[in-house]
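hi support,

uploading two proteins for the ticket. first:
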Amino acid sequence: QVQLVESGGGLMQPGGSLRLSCAASGFTFSNYRMGWYRQHPGKEREWVAAIASADSTTNYADSVKGRFTISRDNAKNTVYLQMNSLKPEDTAVYYCSAHTDFVRFWGQGTQVTVSS
């Protein structure tokens, strides 16, 4: 059974940091590209960051570049999103995704709220 379980969300003041984790099971984690997406209230889900399966090459949306860092630990079947210099506009539900050219899995999401 495929599972992606996000954790680490919560309430943070602007300028603060949070680290999201996504624990994967039920598939060969090291073979999958991993990504983080987010969904603001009333808006469509948007891509945030991605990390390749083979060489861990990373890519970021312009809105988070320089502030967020995606990483993976294939030994622990876990992908992380380190979020620094948080802004109120980062408030969203954050989703973990695992995909190949043929299939995509989603986690259930974790809420991140940035507010003073």
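and the second one:
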Amino acid sequence: QVQLQESGPGLVKTSQTLSLTCTVSGGSITTPYDSWNWIRQPPGKGLEWMGAIGYNGKTFYTPSLKSRTSISRDTSKNQFTLQLTSVTPEDTAVYYCASLDWGQGTQVTVST
């Protein structure tokens, strides 16, 4: 079973860049034809798919966040990373990385 673990700061200030890393074990992020996703859930709201990076490094983003989102990977570490720029309190959420399996999620709060 593939395991995913999110890591990164739990508190970010408004206008800064949120950076999270997902470390994958029990599987490779280059396995065809897997994709590796970032998903978030703001308090009291539903899940929002933010974007993904494919096994071949190709990236996909949801249109509403595309201008602020970047997903990259480090194949040597079997990790993929989310960067979200110019954050506001509306970006406060639990952030998940996922493929077929999900990480446990990490709370990120954006302070004013």
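thanks. also noticed: The longest strand covers residues 18-25.
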